[in-house]
Batch of 4 targets.
Target 1
Amino acid sequence: MSSDDSPSRTPNKPTDDAEASTENRSTADRSPPTAERPVSDGGRATGFDRIETRHAVGVAAILAVAAGLLVAPGVYGAVTGPDGTVAVVEIDGTIDSATAQHVEDNLRDARTNDSIEAVVLEVDSGGGLPAQSERMYAAVDRTASVMPVYAAVDTLGASGAYLAIAPADRIYVAPSAQAVGSVGVAGTAPAPSGPNAGTTGPDKRGSDPDTQRERRQTLANLFLENVIEQRGDEIELDREEIAHADAYLGTEAVENGFADEFGFVDGAVADAASEAGLDDYRVDARRTESRIPGGIPLLERDDGTVVVADGADGELGDGLILAVAPAAWDETVGDDVIMTSYTGRLPADGDATDPTTDDAAAENGGDGE
């Protein structure tokens, strides 16, 4: 065998050069590719640089999420806030022009304020002037047509005050409330008045007793009709019984339908908010700065008759006519003036024409004191 006939190499055993070449390829395949981004020294970023950058980005993202968890609740609360507002409007004390203005102004604001979704009337009043009570009645009726209006009676919610809250969607009373209802007007007994040289006309000094009685009866009829219109489906009494002008305890008022249920202001607020669809709400209490009013201004004539007056000279009526419950009479007028009540039931033929006694007042469907 010649030197040229050396044994051939087996295919499975590569030469040294082939082995080196194969190792280089394997090493190259296992090595991560280098990044193609430039670095500050003008070279190319290594794989380590890229990993380090990703790590920094990940840490920043985690910190951002953590900061969001800490900040977001406060921001969310500040942005959303409550769903709306329940306004609580106070009706306190004897009703006069100041009371009516307070209620009218605040109910008007409730109707025009987009954030107010419901109203609660917080009531502790035995009544007062008829015309001012009717002003409040109209304001409550108008407001109840656009949003839930609830009323909560504490101790007194009678006569003119009851008239004012009659249009409310629901009336809540404390079980121990002392006077609720009393649908009628009250005043002094009509008295004749003689001629007066200081007047400019024969009737300026005052009308005759029959005319005075008719005027009071007209006011009482208006009172009765308004209450029946608003509460007729709830009140379990007939017209004649309502016209008797009784004032009921809280327990009696719920039983006979003058009130809907037992409750207080907080419960009325929560229920009014629920009726308005408010899950989260704020309460805006519209209270008077002091108890209003201090009393009904009265004027005693030379002949001893008493009339409702505005100031020292301006007479508003021929005699004392108030939409006030007997329970509030002494506080409103005092002990020196005898009260005769008038209701929505007209006197029958043959009844006394001068109801100055208790019996005559009772015949007119009211109470005498």
Note: The chain is about 40% helix and 20% strand.
Target 2
Amino acid sequence: MAIELSDDLIQLQRSAVEAQREATVGAYSAEAWKPWLEAAEKLHAEITAHAEATGQSRFAVEAALKKAVLHSEADSES
């Protein structure tokens, strides 16, 4: 059974990836990492809600989402 991902989930994953990039550019500071941590927290809550609403495994939804977003970004960089 294929995992269906909403546009909102995909956008949240992209936002979390971008926040991570920005947070890890310089030296660590709690202030610099705060947007990343907040984006990740929101993403995980939405993944859980989506999994519960669709009756799918949270881990399967997260894996499909990461594959869709992270692998598509890696492919476009080649």
Note: The two ends are 30 Å apart (CA to CA).
Target 3
Amino acid sequence: MHRMPIINPMQHDRRSQPPLSSNGNRRSIREPDVTSVKDATADIEADSWAATLTPRLAQFAAVARYEHVTRAAARLGMPQSTLSRSMARLEQDLGVALFARHGRTVSLTAAGRTFLASVERALSEVDRAAESVRADADPGAGKVAFGFLHTMGSETVPELIRAFRADHPRVRFQLIQNYGEAMLERLRAGELDLCLTSPVPDAPDLVARRLDEQKLRLVVPDAHPLAGRKRIRLAEAATELFVTLEPGYGLRRITDKLCAEAGFTPRIAFEGEDPETLRGMVAAGLGVGLLPPPAVPRPGVVELTVTAPRAVREIGVAWLDGHPDTPPVAAFKRFLLSRRGQLLLHR
């Protein structure tokens, strides 16, 4: 693993010259920086401008605002002599005079005014970034980035959030619907705090807890010979054409597993990304499918209880192991875990 060099604030001798370029040559102040944004942000070296100048930018802005080192030092809560040395070092590092001195007062040079405009924008961005992350972590009004399966979106998730917000009315949610593997990748990337998924993942970098299970039904067209039945063994559908979710979806893996347990490999007629779309294809007579219950009954289909093998999918919540929770995330996690066995509207 690459380690970022540690900056020793006492080592000022090298900073009296412009920073080194990537090939080891001293970089001119006016030389265009051809480093890509990606390269510039990937690793801040100890001799980069960012590492060299950042600690003194707010001090520079204060001196420029007050045009008086002593007043600026009092505002910053630091000794005047320390601030004076810091500004001298800043000018030395840049190789440019930023201030014209007039006794105890100072004024900006043309270079100083140019530099100040960019510094104020940079400091404003830092302030906004800090306020944003503080707001997201606010216990009463912070943000939870929450992922869930498409099939959880019409009833389960709205009901969960409604119940949670009864006690946390100002907590905000960023809601992401996706299939299981994609959500786990976003969890690992830090884009999600928590996700509801199925199957419940078993991975060393994740923590997962089973919350509930959902019965799957064999859905057939209402004109199908099996439509008069209420229950069926899955092996009785071995000769049928199936409509399923695409490979990579958790429900597809469960379908393949249950069919294998029933002694056959399903013949796939159509693959899709949304269970309700598949239910519509069943209604159109294009195949049968193993699907979770619909939010609203769908005309044109009959849903049969599968008696063997046991056709269910487990629903669980997952999060990144070792990832610290903000107060709103911790509160919502506790809430989800308290709903074990009561997560779904069972039909």
Note: The mean pLDDT is 85.
Target 4
Amino acid sequence: MEQLTRVHRRLAGSGPGGRAVWRKSSHSTPNGACVEMAQPPDGQVWFRDSKAPAGPVIALSRGAASAFTSAAGRGDL
């Protein structure tokens, strides 16, 4: 939980690289149910719920993010 709190604070733009640029999934639905992803300069990959941009963020290494998105694409999650 400590990691997520630190990442959430950095979303406000206080990190050394400035604000993260969030992108919506290409599988986003018209009702807004989608996942957003950002790649901050520190080499992590962040995921959040687009309906709750101030909510929690999942911070993963690039390798873990690749495994996560592959598993989600296969329907394994």
Note: The radius of gyration is 13 Å.
